[in-house]
Amino acid sequence: MFEISVLVSGSGSTLDNLAFHCYDDVEGIMRGMVTITSVFADRNCGALEVAEGWGIPKFVLDTKSILKKAGNVDLCVLAGFLSKIYVPPEMEGKILNIHPSLLPKYGGKGMYGRKVHQAVKESGDSITGCTVHVVDNEYDHGEIVDQELIPIMPEQSADDLEMAVKKLEQQLYPKAILNFLSKQPK
Ligand code: GRF
Predict the structure, then answer these.
(1) Is position 99 annotated as part of the catalytic site?
(2) pLDDT tens digits, residue range 54-80?
(3) How far does Cα 23 stand from its chain's mean position?
(4) Fewer Cβ atoms within 10 Å of its own Cβ: the N or the C terminal residue of the chain?
């Protein structure tokens, strides 16, 4: 069984989906293969209630302490974690993030949530999507692990894009985590 820790700052919909895929007996694509040992938050947020709902131990700590504690697992997964991370050498290649755009486009400092989709909408691009990447010391910069894309219809607003990409993220992240873990030496 692979062990992961999940780092959060927000509403916890990404965490909820990952827990579903770890623990749902019927539809969970990571069931029996991946378990979430702990959830770490850098602030009080809705994701803590989500962790509680799934019976996962949860901790609120500053980012430095989180990285010290969260690394004792096969993989550390960011799920809407908003603080800047400086990756300790022993955790290089062991932290994943999901970003709601086709990186390297629309990433970097300050590019999160609705802002991403507004920028995509204003650009006139015809496709958007989401990216799972390894976390390094630059925002949204590490090696790309997987991407999923969808077409943009002219009538879609930034809100519509956000909803559509969120759905896509829910499919991509568990799949990408499982693939990534399967390739790691156990
Ligand atoms: C995700 O949708 C992802 O795009 C980004 O942060 C969002 C987290 O939202 N990394 P939530 O807190 O899981 O609802």
Answers:
(1) yes
(2) 999 999 999 989 988 887 899 999 999
(3) 18
(4) C
